[in-house]
Write a structure and sequence with these properties.
- The complex is a heterodimer of chains A (about 280) and B (about 400).
- Chain A is α/β, with parallel strands linked by helices.
- Chain A is built from six helices and 15 strands.
- Chain A has two domains: about 5-90, Translation factors (Elongation Factor Tu (Ef-tu), domain 3), CATH 2.40.30.10; about 110-230, Rossmann fold, CATH 3.40.50.80.
- The radius of gyration of chain A is 18 Å and the shape is globular.
- Helices cover about 35% and strands about 25% of the residues of chain B.
- Chain B is built from 13 helices and 16 strands.
- Chain B has an eight-stranded mixed beta sheet with strand order 3-2-8-9-10-11-1-12, with helices on both faces. In chain B, strands 7-6-14-13 form a four-stranded antiparallel beta sheet, with no helix packed on it.
- In chain B, helix 9 crosses helix 11.
- Classes of the chains: A alpha/beta (about 280), B alpha+beta (about 400).
- The interface of A and B includes residues 238 and 274 of A.
Chain lengths: ~280, ~400
């Protein structure tokens, strides 16, 4: 339960309310993690919040966390400056299982669908997948939806992934005067992307309603339900399975999630109100 | 005297042996546990109810007390018969002994530009509970699964739970809201006790049939004078337990219950319950297995930071807070969460029921909502809906 003290060594504003902070332990080595997992970050004296890791295990250097300013703790984290101390406990939870091979051992297409800041917990997975695709030929499709163009995070990464051979497509709910791209829900990007549904796995993170409709659309296209992973969120407080806040039906999401397969009970949970 | 000292006054005993002691010898048993280094606690009378407290002899126990319980009602009554265990359960369960209602996790002070943490030291003195109920022992096993036997054990719970000695008082007087027989957790004691007492008072006098549950229990009993249980004692014990089951008028049909609730998330019954439910959280407070807690950080003027864990409830609006608001805003969704967790998803999470049938949530609900009645109503609605479905299929 005691956090490990880290120092903020980098800070970057992504949008008007999203900041990426980079953390190094005050002593000791960087913790190991897998893409999709989260840490509990403490703003000392204010509290603790679950924040996903937005870095890739393959990248050396500080831990990256991309935080949206929505409450007292995330506000303090977003306001933290280089040199400030932040507490870290973790990593917790399940990951995107990017090392899993398809059942027949063939390289698969991976469709990554993100809504808004949902790209943060997917960033590490995409970094790993794009790097791996150079060796194994598995294709990577990154489909991003945002409320408006100013809410798109990681623009430079999106460009770099496209340069490295990934299929990258964007859409916004509301265009701005400068936006010449697509307008519409992220599900409208699915039909354009030339992946092979029969050998596709999907990684989805965004608002619940977006994940639900994206997963349903993918199933309708012929993607195996079990190959669709979603990242779910509830009020993680302890990360250890003690506090009960992160329950969603049968899951304690800090322990059994956040990444779960869409198959079975999850599709019902996403369809039921106030679960 | 150590726990392994076998030189005692009584016979050498084995697990499952039955012996008989008189009230004076129960007094000796409590004293012996104290001598062995245990902090001895048990049911006591306080604030007009039966509550956990220090017990150094039988006179500290609820002598002559009876509890009249019904939905939303609890009263103590007294008799001059000197019986010690002729009541069911009070509001406060034993969970507070292991899972403190309020507990500091750590304190941090700034030293040399970084933070230095201290964690509270854990108490070393083991606890002996005299007179826990079978359902309460079952509840401790349930909490063990949640807080001790998972991948990340709660070390504070572990430290207090370590070395616990349990003398269970089997139930001869179930309360008006008890349904342990349905849950398989009473009225006779299941696993998890060291010694089990059953109180008898008949032509053979006021006495306790003691069942030995563990080798440790046998060692402790060996230091207390006792007599072997006669056939009459054994028969009287069995009769008392049978009578206890027959006197329990509440039942919860557990067959298929987890799946039933899992498919009843959209039942109209939840909204009907919410018309009565005050979402006060009393049921979670008195429940011997509810384990939800909040972690809060505070600062003081010295700049030190403390993290404190306190009991919380799934009926609190901020229990399900998620960036900007609660997920479960309606009372019906919060009652649904509580009940379906107890009886359904607890199985998914911890491979056990979250309910032991103690009836506290019924007694201490200010409007008398009865979990057994609600489960039966949901089952009735489900059966009716399925019958209609079958009829439609047949057409």
């Amino acid at each position: 339960m005691t956090p490990v003290v880290h120092r903020v060594v980098g800070r970057r504003r992504e949008t008007d309310d999203v900041v990426t902070i980079q953390l190094e332990p005050v002593s000791g080595t960087r913790l190991e993690f897998r893409p999709g997992q989260f840490n509990m970050l403490s703003a000392f004296g204010i509290g603790e919040a679950a924040i996903s890791l937005s870095g890739a295990p393959r990248d050396p250097g500080p831990l990256r966390h991309t935080v949206r300013d929505v409450g007292p703790v995330s506000h303090a984290l977003c306001q933290s400056d280089v040199g400030d101390l932040v507490g870290v406990r973790g990593p917790f939870g399940s990951d995107w299982r990017i090392g899993d091979r398809s059942e027949d051992g063939r390289d698969r297409d991976t469709v990554v669908v993100a809504g808004g800041i949902g790209l943060a917990p997917l960033r590490g997975a995409v970094q790993e997948l794009v790097a791996a695709s150079r060796e194994n030929g598995g294709r990577v499709f990154v489909l991003v939806g945002a409320r408006d163009p100013s809410q798109i995070i990681f623009n430079e990464d999106l460009q770099a992934w496209a340069d490295d051979g990934a299929y990258v497509d964007l859409t916004v709910d509301r265009a701005s005067a400068q936006w010449s791209g697509r307008v519409g829900l992220v599900t409208t990007l699915l039909g354009r992307a030339p992946f092979d549904p029969a050998r596709t796995r999907a990684l989805i993170c965004g608002p619940e309603i977006m994940m639900r409709f994206t997963a349903r659309a993918l199933v309708d296209m012929g993607v195996d339900q079990r190959a669709i992973l979603v990242s779910l969120e509830r009020n993680m407080e302890c990360g250890l399975g003690w506090c009960g806040h992160c329950q969603l039906g049968p899951f304690l999401l800090c322990r059994d999630g956040p990444v779960v397969a869409y198959a079975g009970v999850v599709s019902d949970l996403l369809a039921e109100r106030e679960r | 005297m150590s726990l392994h000292d076998r030189s005692g006054l009584g016979p050498n005993l084995d697990v499952e042996d039955l012996v008989v002691i008189r009230p004076d010898q129960l007094n000796d048993l409590i004293a012996r546990l104290g001598d062995l280094g245990y902090e001895t606690k048990g049911p006591t009378i306080g604030d007009g109810a039966i509550v956990p407290g220090a017990v150094r002899g039988t006179s500290d126990l609820p002598v002559g007390a009876r509890d009249a319980q019904s939905p939303g009602r609890y009263r103590l009554e007294y008799s001059d018969d000197g019986h010690l265990f002729e009541w069911a359960v009070g509001a406060r369960s034993w969970k507070a002994e292991f899972f403190a209602p309020r507990e500091r996790q750590w304190r941090a002070v700034i030293v040399d530009g970084t933070l230095r943490f201290t964690e509270p030291t854990k108490s070393a003195r083991p606890l002996a509970i005299i007179g826990a109920r079978p359902c309460e022992v079952a509840a401790i096993s349930v909490l063990d699964e949640v807080l001790m036997n998972g991948a990340c054990p709660d070390t504070g719970y572990d430290a207090r739970r370590e070395g616990l000695f349990v003398v269970v008082a089997e139930c001869t007087a179930p309360g008006g809201t008890c349904f342990c027989a349905s849950m398989g957790s009473g009225p006779s004691a299941g696993p998890g006790f060291d010694l089990a007492l059953l109180e008898l008072d008949d032509a053979d006098g006021h006495r306790f049939v003691v069942r030995v549950g563990t080798a440790r229990g046998a060692e402790v009993m060996a230091g207390v004078s006792s007599t072997s249980a006669t056939d009459a004692d054994v028969a009287a014990r069995a009769q008392a337990l049978d009578r206890s089951i027959n006197r329990m008028h509440r039942h919860l049909q557990t067959e298929g219950l987890a799946a039933l609730l899992a498919r009843s998330m959209e039942s109209p019954r939840w909204d009907q319950i919410a018309e009565r439910c005050l979402s006060c959280g009393n049921c979670t407070l008195v429940c011997p297995t509810c384990f939800c807690s909040d972690f809060r950080d505070t600062t003081d003027v010295s700049g030190a930071v403390e993290r404190t864990r306190t009991w919380s409830s799934c009926f609190d609006l901020d229990h399900s807070y998620l960036h900007g608001g609660p997920v479960r805003a309606s009372t019906s969704s919060r009652y649904r969460q509580w009940m379906s967790h107890k009886l359904s998803t607890w199985w998914d999470q911890f491979d056990t029921s979250g309910c032991v049938g103690c009836g506290r949530c019924i007694t201490w609900c200010p409007v008398g909502i009865d979990i057994t009645e609600e489960a039966a109503a949901i089952r009735g609605d489900d059966e009716a809906a399925r019958a209609v479905h079958v009829e439609e299929e047949a057409r």
